[in-house]
Amino acid sequence: HWLLALIARLSIGLVFWNSGRTKVDGWNIFHVNGKTMFLFTEEYRLPVIPPGLAALAAQIAEHVLPALLIVGLATRFSALGLLAMTLVIQVFVYPGAYVLHGTWAAILLMLVKYGPGAVSLDHLIARR
Q1: Within 13 Å, how many C-alpha atoms sit on residue 95's CB side?
Q2: pTM above the 0.85 mark?
Q3: Which residues does the chain have with pLDDT short of 50?
Q4: Do residues 78 and 72 touch, judged by C-beta distance below 8 A?
Q5: Which of 3, 1, 122, 32 is nearest to 68 (CA)?
Q6: Which residues of 91-109 are buried (b: 16+ CB within 10 A; e: fewer)?
Q7: 75-88 helix and 98-114 helix, angle to the nearest 10 degrees
Q8: Residue 45: predicted pLDDT
Q9: Angle at 48 between CA 47 and CA 49, to 5 degrees
């Protein structure tokens, strides 16, 4: 399980990390750049949540949760957060991308159910 979990954490973590990196200029994850604001205002158009807040929440989540997932810290929590993001993306942003989002969901659900594996900070902390 440790190898499968490690590959899962790295692969899905990098998908979201790379997406988050496209939303910022430099390393300030608390600043919504113009391109990201345009996307959340004109293309994504999430209901209920204002575009600025949605953009900020997405770019913070796409940096923090994948980083935690990759090192295997708070793995189940991080996977649940990314699973929620996947659901929002599927339902409100790109409903036609169910094959891709289904793959993401399967990986994230596996991490939620079985945990991060032995090569993780969660495992190291649990042993102590």
Answers
A1: 4
A2: yes
A3: none
A4: no
A5: 122
A6: eebeeeeeeebeebbebbe
A7: 160
A8: 85
A9: 95
